[in-house]
Amino acid sequence: MADPSLKNKAENYLKYLCLDLPTRRVGSQGNRNANEFVAEKFASFGFKLERQPFDCIDWTQGAATLCLNGEQFQVQVGPFTAGCDTRAPVVVACSLEELESTDACDKILLLRGDLTREQLMPKNFPFYNPDEHKRIISLLEMKKPRAVLTATARNPESAGAVYPFPLIEDGDFDIPSAYLTEEEGERLASRTDEMAALVIEAERRSSSGFNLAAHKGRPERRVVFSAHIDAKDNTPGALDNAAGVIVLLLLAELLKEYDGRIGIELVPFNGEDHYSAAGEIAYLRANESKLNQVLLNINMDGLGSHKGKTIYSLYECPDELKAKIQKTFTTQSGFGEGPPWFQGDHMVFAMLGIPALALTSENFVEILTEIAHTPKDSPDLVDCEKLVKTAITLQKMLADFT
Ligand SMILES: [Zn+2]
């Protein structure tokens, strides 16, 4: 059995991060408190702290209503949208060609069909932004509708367990937006040219946050352990990703006497679940010329589920490193190799050709499609014993390195 005092600590961390804090949304006080809490713990275990500050938008929402001639339609407030209170006719576009030829100026524009298959990347997202997304966004800005309504089908790959999912989630996009189900979209599409009254209650505020990095030992040759600390609004964010942060906290304690030859950096990334990826960008900026010093990134996201094993996947790892990592995991129970996935912060490193190792739960598809980003992601889904086991295993892996 894992060290009972560590397990106890893990349970307390879990309760604090998921239940005591009202939210860990980037830009919120809860998010700053979570980061200060972790910073204080890291410092108490002898780590040197580095705060990478950033500006961001914090955002709060009220209700959204859409009414055509006395008939109500179910619409939801688009995340990070500006608010509006407007009356205008509805026009529809289902494809890029239709969008190009539609006169949407001063109208309420409903997007459906091919245009709404996958969530659009935010305008200024630096890591991945397909031309088609950019084209849709720039057309919308050119057409100047009063508001955009998006009717979306289910798409767990793009939006996790959320249905309908918001097509637009972007604090830099200034046209008010709301989203609705495919069925409501169909009903609305048959009512074009009628006057619609749309109210979206939402408010954007400038705010700030920081990305934390904690160091021990020589930074010129270091292993970076990471786990995003932020969460979407409206979720306790237990598996996604208090669990990963707890492994960082346990590992920090296990390494409190560490003085090995390899440097260690602990990074609770602050922006994996925020449209702006502000923490990741702040980290990259602070490390511009120093990323070639990173020997390996170990990123944790969605691990510690009661169900199944903890699975690992490798990215950009040379054979020798691969063999070393695989050996550590095969000598420990409860771990297995799983398929690669590309929606986590390990890609920050892997995209630059830096070796990375990602840890998650065997039932990650279920987590992604049923649990993540919803109120269901609560502490009772997390097995703290698995988190302790993971921290101890990572400590062993580090010892093999030196
Ligand atoms: Zn996550």
Structural notes for this entry:
The structure is a single chain. The protein has 402 residues and is of the alpha/beta class. It has 2 domains: 4-58 and 207-401, Aminopeptidase (3-Layer(aba) Sandwich); 70-193, Glucose Oxidase, domain 1. Helix content is 33%, strand content 26%. It is built from 12 helices and 14 strands. The chain has helices spanning 4-20, 29-44, 96-101, 131-143, 156-159, 182-189, 238-254, 278-286, 319-330, 346-350, 364-371, 384-401, and strands spanning 48-68, 71-73, 76-77, 84-93, 108-111, 147-152, 177-181, 195-216, 222-226, 263-267, 294-300, 310-315, 335-337, 356-361. Strands 1, 2, 3, 4, 5, 6, 7, 8, 9, 10, 11, 12, 13 and 14 form a 14-stranded mixed beta sheet that branches. A hairpin with a 2-residue loop joins β1 (48-68) and β2 (71-73). α1 (4-20) crosses α7 (238-254), α1 packs across α12 (384-401) and α7 (238-254) crosses α12. The chain is elongated. The mean pLDDT is 94. Bound molecules: zinc ion. Zinc ion (ZN) binds at residues 228, 240-241, 272-273, 301-302. Zinc ion binds at residues 228, 240-241, 272-273, 301-302.
